Amino acid sequence: MVKIKPKRLLADLHELRKFGACGKGVVRTAFSQVDLDSRQWLIGKMTEAGLHVQEDGIGNVIGYSRNSGQALLMGSHTDTQPEGGWLDGSLGVISALEVARTLLESSNTQYRAVDIASWMDEEGTFCGLLGSRSFCGKISPEVIANAKDRNGLTLTEAIHAAGLNEVPVARIDPGRYVAYLEAHIEQGARLVSAKKHIGVVTAIVGIRSFKLVFTGEQNHAGTTPMQLRKDAGMALIRLANDIDAVYRKISGDTTVWTIGHVKFEPGSHSIVPGHAEMMLQFRDPDSRLLDRFEAALYDLVAMGKKTGPVEITIEPLGAPIPPAFMDDGLQEHIVRAAETHAPGDWICMPSGAGHDAMVFADILPTAMLFVPSIGGISHNFAEDTKEEDIVLGCQVFATAAASILKAHT
Amino acid sequence: MVKIKPKRLLADLHELRKFGACGKGVVRTAFSQVDLDSRQWLIGKMTEAGLHVQEDGIGNVIGYSRNSGQALLMGSHTDTQPEGGWLDGSLGVISALEVARTLLESSNTQYRAVDIASWMDEEGTFCGLLGSRSFCGKISPEVIANAKDRNGLTLTEAIHAAGLNEVPVARIDPGRYVAYLEAHIEQGARLVSAKKHIGVVTAIVGIRSFKLVFTGEQNHAGTTPMQLRKDAGMALIRLANDIDAVYRKISGDTTVWTIGHVKFEPGSHSIVPGHAEMMLQFRDPDSRLLDRFEAALYDLVAMGKKTGPVEITIEPLGAPIPPAFMDDGLQEHIVRAAETHAPGDWICMPSGAGHDAMVFADILPTAMLFVPSIGGISHNFAEDTKEEDIVLGCQVFATAAASILKAHT
Fold first, then answer.
1. Residues of A whose CB is below 8 A from B351
2. What pLDDT, in 10s, does the model give residues A23-39?
């Protein structure tokens, strides 16, 4: 049985937390100075662990095992949201480091190969999942050339400023790996609600987002009788209400839908809105359910257009993200490890959030493990996880990693 | 029979239009240089008409008749919205000027007294209905001291810059007047829809406005199951839809209601809104109906709060504006004049918009006349009225003014 070192794990997490610490949270957006500094620290830690470390031309930090044979790849990301939590992806990166160290230190596993990585800019300061997509060869030069942060700084400028413009970009050698594993905080409240401490991820949900635009006629709110109005705002409210009512009927247990953005123009309390827009997003691990939601949406829009008098247009907001399925065999290894360390204290669940793991899922057998988020809070300075849960998650992952490597190599 | 001079009326309207002309529209906000220049021009026109002219300390331009006996007071405003139409209140001011001139030129009416005015800042660049409220003693020094335009310029600074800070403010002598009359463009499409050319105003609607704030919990749109959400945005959509459904059932013919402003925070397509707000306004000439609307609103909010899980607060947005009733006897004079010049071509109707006339309605017998707005468009560069309608409206008003003065003095 491999045994992680809880104090070392927690000490490293707290040391990483200092880069960009802001109250209880962390501000360490991709390519910021604290992000670059934290990568140097991480390179030191990986080197100390005996790994051969590469910082690639997109900012990924990858520690390759010096052992021969097929390897496990484990990782996540250390960049944060503009107001980020201290764990988020960092938990996965430092857990991977601790697993790699633990296996190298244990007599039964000291010759196993575990590569570990911090993928650049998962959070999308410039471009979401940048590092993992680059490593997997899933991002085009155009996308990289056009990527900008919210202040207009281009990714190209950021790479240059980081001194990485002459550095080669790392690419995956799929033949080297038996699997990709990622630990992450749950970012939701399913584990807390279910009073369980380990989440074994079954799938990462597919996501489809749409923008709806309503064009009516801007008018005086006093002099325009109801029957002469073309009120873009009311058309939006009615359609949004109808969408919600239909979705409640046809949704599955894991489906979520969100109207996160609504805007009325001109937005005065005394003017009938001539223009309104909304953004709708829905997620589910089942593509057939996503299809059903999309069909219902287009039906309701068509009905609204027919009824009039407001024009409605709908278009997808970005490319749809298909569901990514976690490997059944890997899930079994994790479940067995969870049963060993915390019998009955785990559930299988989908991930409602996107993760670097989704980029790997069609290239390598892939799996994820979640630890609970206190109060379900994430992307927030208040995000946190109990220390015993962090330790338990890492221990389960170490046992699972040893068992996967044993079974496959 | 008094006969206006159509060419003179239209020429003066077109001359006034030049102050701040912008394409087909006019930009002549209160206290702007073009507004101040136009007032000098208007002073010249009133003086030329034989009136004794006063520009008062708030910017009102008032032309007093030199005839003795009780007088009619006629007026409107020459300031515009930031993107205003060329007629709007200017139609009423120049029509009043033409009526005053016509009566002075006609042998039957040459000894009648008609005072005319352009009231400052009806449109609320600094403070809505400023001039008429000041003239009627309905505005406090505090309101004036605190009034600012959207750039932060104070009304006090604007008065100073106009050189009016040492000038006394005019106050109404209610004993002097038999009535207040105001002509205006309709600003809506009721006349056009009804294919009529004169609107005899029965009442200016009462207005009540409310701000509703929804406080839920901001959450990740992927990891927060539907049953654990406190979605402020969806709570708003459901309540807004319910309000509209109930209002359709209990509204009268003339009731209008508007949700002109809606905001979701943080407003990202990937985040469950934790905060949302909306502004609701309704208008009707009948206070009992306004009471019914308000009661239904508070009932729905109470129901929404009880259902949860989102907190809802509601507060009035500004003071409620009570309906202002036009004098029945004056309406009869206008109807008779309309029947004389355009038999069957008029309707009685409420005014959905506020006007200076509402300030006078509880001090003097008050009446208004509307001419059609092409396409119902107002507060817009495209606002317009056919020349024959402008002329007809002024002629009807001149005949009515003569008949009112004959009956009352």
1. 222-223
2. 999 999 999 999 999 99
